[in-house]
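forwarding from the other thread:

> can someone predict this with 2M8?

sure thing
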Amino acid sequence: MKEEEVPEGFSRRVRTGVPERVNPLAAGVLRRNSIKSWTKPAPALYPHQWSWDSAFIALGLAHVDNHRATSELETLFANQWATGKVPHIVFNPEAPPRSYFPDAERWNSSAISEDAPSGSHTSGLCQPPVHALAVRRIWETARGRDEQHVARARRFLGDNYPRLYAWHRYLASARDPEGSGLVTIYHPWESGTDNSPRWDAALEAVVVGDLPPYERQDLNHVDDPSERPTDAEYARYLWLIELIKRARCDEATIYKQHPFLVKDALFSAILVAANEDLLEIAEVAGAPEDERVEISAWIERGRTGLENSWSSELGLCLDYDLRRDALLRARTVAGFAPLAAGAPGRLESLLRTLYSPDFLGHPALHRALPPSTSPAEARFHPRSYWRGPVWPVLSWLLWRWLAGAGERAHAEVLRRTALDQLSEGGFAEYFEPFTGEPLGSDDQSWTAAVALDWLARDAEP
Ligand code: 2M8
C-alpha cells in the first residue's frame, strides 16, 4: 500500500491514531477530491467548487503543492462576477445528474444577470472571504523555497491582487452601503454556517411563497437526516433564492425588498483579517498607494463594526437583523469574531467566555474543541450540522485568531487537540462534540486542508 492510499473504511477512522500518519492521509484526501485544476469539498455530497472551501483547500495545498494551490484559486476567480463578487458555487458541468440541489439550471445566473460570467454556471450568492488568507499562505510557503518558486508566487500575487481588491471592494460597498464596517448577507448559505441558530429569528420571519417543485439531494449522502438542515429550513432557503433570482441579483433591488437582510459578524471579522492580508499582498504586488489607504480604512471600519456588535451580557459579539432592526441573540462560535481583529479591549471577556462551561469548559465535551453552537443554548443540537457539532475549519479560525491576539499557549493547545480529533476520527465534515463521532461527509477537503496547515507548524523552528 502506498502511503497516501486509504484502505476500505479507513477514512472514517484513522485507526493508527498516530498524528504523523495524518499528513499523507490529508494530502491523499485532497488528491482524490481533485478535479483538474480545482477540488470538490467532498467526494459525493458537494460535487461542485465552493468558494470558501477552495480558499481553505488552497491554504492547505500551499504546503504540499504550491502550484496546485494557485490553480485552485485561479479557477475560482476566473468565475468572478463583474461586480467583484466571488460566487459561492461554480458548477461542475461534469457532476453526476441530480447529485446536488439547487443546481446550475435552477440558478440560471448568466440568464438572469449581466454581471454573471457568461461562459460558466455559478450561484448568485457569496461566502466569507478567506481567499486573501490563502494567497498570503501561498506567498509565505513559496518564500521558503527556491528562486523559481518565489518568482512564480510573486507573479501570482501580482496577477491576482486586482481580483482580490475588487472582491473586497464589492463587500465594502454593495454589501455595506451603510458604511457600518459589517457585511450584509442575503441568505444563511452566505454565512457558511447555514442552519446555525444565529439565523433562526431572521429566517422564521420569511414567509415562503409559491415555490417551483424541487427534490433535495443532500439527504442521499448522509447516514441520518438529523445531520442536515430540516425541510422547513430548506423551503426557506429555496424561497430566498427564488426572490434573489426575481431581483435579477441586483444589489439595490435586493436591499430594498429582500426579507432576509442580516449583518454577519463572523463574515465581517474574516473580512477584517483578509484585508490585513490583502495589505501585505498589495505591498508585494506594488499596488497603488490610494488602494492601500482604502484597504486600511476598511480594516478600521470593520473593527468599529465589530465593536458595535458587542454584547456585554453574553461576552460575545452578535449578528444584526436589518429588517427587524434587532440583534440576533445566539451563543455560537461566531461570537468570538472580534478575536480576528485582535479583540482590542475585549480579549479578557472573550477568553472568559471561551473557557467557560458554555464553550470549551463544558464538562461533557469529548475534547476541548469549540462546538459550533454553545451546549448552553436551548437550540443546541449535538448532531445537527451548524447547530452544535465541532467543525475543524472553525477550530482553525479560532486557533489562528488566538495566536494573532498573542494567546500562543491557548492556540497551541487548541491545535494539538484538533489534530488529535482528526487522528481519531478522520477527515469528517464535522464531529459530535460529546462523543467525537464523525458526522456529515467523509473525506471533507477543507478538514484535510486545515490539518496540513496545522501540521506544517510542527516543521517550524
Ligand atoms: C455547506 O453549505 C452548502 C450550501 O452552500 C450545503 O449545505 O449544501 C456549508 O457547510 C458551507 O459552509 C460549505 O461551504 C458547503 C460546502 O462544504 O457546505
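The first strand starts at residue 34 and ends at 35. thats all i got for now
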